[in-house]
Write a sequence for this structure.
């Protein structure tokens, strides 16, 4: 007998699924309500003031909240930090025991509180007022302590919680999370935060691998196999063996890529009983696929998959500058 069947009456599975779907429907409805709030002139004006203060702050965004709002605040801190806005999470319980020292007059405090009346936030509010630190707030209660103390208050819409007892924060925290993401994306847009910037903050892991550039993985200089068009098949074979990339570039006198000769081309030439003194230019692939050094490595992998090749030459203004093998991409975690 399953664990579920021991807990709930037989035949109530449909009701459980219905409850889950109802929770999702309430979350979706809440998000639509939040989106509609941006059509309100007062709300959108407050949002623009919020963004303006954060974008111009010389220090950091100190994000704080208690309970479920605190958990959302931690996630918001991580998203802001990784997208170009320096941020720190301040736990209200630790604030009054020395951690308020991390807040400087150059910072701004972003406070999350659904009720706006959490007593743990009191010391932070008093500190902001005493030392002139801008206080930004997100709350659902316009007449609350947090709302009245804030320099800018984002009044979140009243929504129905998914909890049947209307106690556990569910829909409201979903809105807080979504608003945090919207704020971070707006700040990214204003900063012109690019994929290159994102990679600087995510050099490790899969995200970093997808943002690495071709020039960071390619072979360069003498490690790039190359021969001239009139070189012999034997010379091309020796060059391919030296570089161990499964092929060689064919370049003109100016060093520009004009062809490619691979292991497969060599096998076909040998099968045809060609003389190894014949010019490699007769057997090369003309105008082979190439890629620029500043393209994403993930784009190089896509080209290799589409063309069913394992070696890609790297060119800049037509000049051969590197070679990239699929093994290099896979070893770096590009997928």
């Amino acid at each position: 007998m399953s664990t579920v069947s021991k807990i709930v009456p037989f035949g109530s599975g449909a009701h459980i699924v219905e409850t889950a779907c109802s929770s999702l429907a309430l979350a979706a409805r809440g998000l639509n309500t939040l989106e509609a709030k941006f059509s309100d002139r007062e709300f959108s004006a407050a949002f623009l003031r919020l963004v303006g203060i954060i974008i111009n702050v010389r220090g950091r965004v100190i994000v704080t909240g208690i309970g479920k709002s605190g958990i959302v605040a931690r996630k918001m801190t991580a998203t802001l930090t990784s997208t170009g806005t320096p941020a720190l999470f301040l736990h209200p319980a630790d604030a009054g025991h020395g951690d308020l020292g991390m807040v400087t007059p150059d910072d701004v405090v972003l406070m999350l509180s659904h009720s706006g009346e959490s007593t743990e936030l009191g010391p932070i509010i008093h500190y902001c007022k005493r030392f002139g630190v801008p206080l930004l707030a997100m709350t659902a209660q316009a007449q609350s302590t947090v709302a009245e103390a804030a320099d800018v208050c984002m009044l979140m819409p009243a929504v129905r919680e998914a909890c049947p007892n209307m106690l556990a924060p569910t829909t409201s925290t979903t809105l807080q999370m979504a608003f945090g993401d919207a704020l971070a994306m707006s700040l990214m847009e204003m900063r012109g935060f690019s994929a290159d910037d994102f990679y600087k903050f995510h050099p490790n892991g899969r995200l970093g691998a997808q943002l690495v550039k071709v020039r960071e993985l390619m072979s360069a200089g003498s490690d790039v196999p190359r021969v001239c068009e009139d070189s012999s098949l034997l010379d091309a074979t020796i060059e391919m063996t030296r570089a161990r990339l499964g092929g060689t570039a064919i370049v003109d006198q100016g060093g520009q890529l004009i062809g490619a000769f691979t292991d497969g081309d060599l096998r076909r030439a040998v099968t045809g009983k060609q003389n190894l003194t014949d010019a490699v230019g007769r057997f090369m692939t003309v105008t082979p696929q190439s890629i620029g050094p500043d393209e994403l490595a993930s784009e190089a992998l896509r080209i290799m998959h589409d063309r069913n090749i394992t070696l890609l030459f790297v060119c800049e203004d037509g000049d051969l500058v590197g070679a990239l093998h699929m093994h290099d991409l896979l070893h770096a975690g590009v997928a």
The chain has a mean pLDDT of 88. The longest strand covers residues 319-325.
